[in-house]
Specification:
Elements: H1 2-8, H2 20-31, H3 35-46, H4 51-78, H5 85-92, H6 95-124, H7 133-152, H8 155-183, H9 194-197, H10 201-219, H11 235-264, H12 267-275, H13 281-290, H14 293-326, H15 345-361, H16 364-392, H17 407-426, H18 428-451
Helix pairs in contact: 2-8, 2-11, 2-14, 3-4, 3-10, 4-10, 4-11, 4-16, 4-17, 5-6, 5-16, 6-7, 6-14, 6-15, 6-16, 6-18, 7-8, 7-14, 7-15, 8-11, 8-14, 11-13, 13-14, 14-15, 16-17, 16-18, 17-18
Keywords: Membrane, Transmembrane, Transmembrane helix
Subcellular location: Membrane
Protein name: Serine threonine exchanger SteT domain protein
Length: about 450
């Protein structure tokens, strides 16, 4: 009798506790990380040291990200379920395609990103404190454990942490932007230099495209809000709003931050710093206005940026495990929801384990290269899922539709193809690994499909 009642007891469900502000903060926290302080140097280098082309690359990178987020907004409002891209690819193509994405997210995308941020945080403080490689690993491990516990305690706890750190993180950035733009003494030269002016239009487009790829790493993470759509209040309306606001806000911050650098530092200083490997130009801006205390301000801002990114990634990525297990394509325990905290606790613990393993076994370059390439493949497939779903399910209610359709789809697809082709020719080994991991996921899919029974989600 008692066992019968237990078997019929309803399973706890994820709690809807995320609104527009909290949802926007999750994405802003993930996107605005340590990259804001050094990616601008790479963008400027790849733009032929042209400030005008560099700012154009930041704007175009934000536009491409915005186009992708518009597609996610339509798919998310149409099907506001926890799981994000995994759900959309399964519906548009086949469950095996969705699972291949999910597998690379579980093995590389999620844990790799978490590990990279956790490692980058103590490294950022090496300018102030002597931190050995061993202690970098120890601190990174501690951070992963602490923020996993925070997110196991409930999405509301994780949300509060995310909101608090984002507000504290953005304030120093805004200070640097205001000081640089309004009190900087240099007028940026937006005209093309002599070397660039001699290039053909095709060569210039190729150069700017290469710079956009660097900027897109700074925007990485824009797909992650959809993974928690099942925990959003009124997701049909709030999901598109949060996506548009967060990507738009991030683009503005990136462009203004780099403009503040150009206003504060002379071109000669910028060129010399980059040539000498000093990529953190934001530090020089802070030191220019605030003296030696500027170093401390930048270090604090970087720490807050990376902590909020780390928390947002841990919150979002664990939902991939949960969604796959709900479909019977992982062991049932991955779909377990904590009876008190209403969070996918086992998925969070396993993500923590994989992240720690990667933090101890790989370096930052190896982690980020795999994440970018494999992510671009599935981002492009997600964009193409919008027209596919309109053809396959024309009568499904769409509370939000992509603006500028079909040009939005065409431009975004071409952009992702450029990213993939550049990475493939520049780093074929990483590209083949990025392709191989999803293919292994396809094999794992068939194993679960034929040897394990799907769990009952009713």
């Amino acid at each position: 009798m008692n066992s019968s009642k237990k078997s019929q007891a309803p399973q706890p469900k994820l709690k809807r506790a995320i609104g527009v502000f909290s949802g926007s903060n999750i994405l802003v926290g993930i996107m605005i990380g340590s990259g804001i302080f050094y990616i601008g140097s790479y963008v400027l280098q790849r733009s032929g040291m042209s400030m005008g082309l560099a700012l154009m690359a930041w704007l175009l990178g934000g536009l491409i990200t915005l186009l992708g987020s518009l597609c996610l907004a339509e798919l998310g409002a149409m099907n506001p379920a926890t799981g994000g891209i995994y759900i959309y690819l399964s519906d548009a193509y086949s469950p095996i395609v969705g699972y291949m994405f999910n597998f690379q997210s579980m093995i590389i995308g999620g844990p790799g990103s978490v590990a990279a941020i956790a490692i980058a945080l103590p490294i950022a403080f090496r300018t102030l404190l002597p931190i050995s490689d061993l202690w970098v690993k120890i601190i990174a491990t501690s951070l992963i454990i602490i923020f996993t516990i925070i997110n196991v305690l409930g999405v509301e706890v994780g949300k509060i942490v995310q909101n608090s750190f984002n507000v504290l993180k953005v304030l120093p950035l805004i200070l640097i932007i205001i000081l640089g733009i309004f009190w900087g003494r240099y007028i940026p030269n937006f005209t093309m230099n002599t070397r660039i002016s001699t290039l053909s239009p095709v060569a210039i487009i190729k150069m700017v495209s290469f710079a956009i790829i660097a900027s897109l790493w700074a925007y990485e993470g824009w797909t992650n809000l959809n993974t928690v759509a099942g925990e959003m209040k009124n997701p049909q309306k709030n999901l598109p709003r949060a996506l548009l606001f967060s990507v738009g806000f991030t683009t503005i911050v990136y462009v203004l931050f780099n403009l503040a650098i150009y206003r504060t530092l002379s071109f000669g200083h910028i060129q010399s710093a980059i040539n000498n490997g000093q990529l953190y130009l934001g530090t020089d801006v802070a030191k220019h206005f605030l003296g030696t205390s500027g170093n401390v301000l930048v270090a604090i801002s970087m720490a807050l940026a990376m902590i909020s990114a780390l928390n947002g990634m841990i919150l979002a990525f664990a939902r991939y495990y949960y969604a796959a297990a709900k479909d019977g394509l992982l062991w049932r325990v991955f779909a377990h929801v904590h009876p008190k905290f209403k969070t996918p606790d086992f998925s969070l613990w396993m993500q923590m384990l994989f992240s720690i393993i990667l933090a101890w076994s790989r370096n930052l370059d190896q982690l980020t290269s795999l994440v970018v390439f494999s992510g671009a493949i599935f981002n492009m497939l997600t964009v193409l899922a919008v027209p596919l779903m309109r053809v396959r399910k024309p009568h499904v209610i769409r509370p939000y539709k992509v603006w500028g359709y079909p040009w939005t789809i065409i431009i975004a697809t071409i952009s992702f193809l450029i990213i993939l082709s550049n990475n493939f020719f520049d780093d074929p080994v990483t590209s083949f690994i990025g392709l191989g991991i999803p293919l292994i996921g396809g094999i794992v899919y068939w194993i679960f499909k034929y040897y394990y029974h799907p769990i009952n989600t009713n």
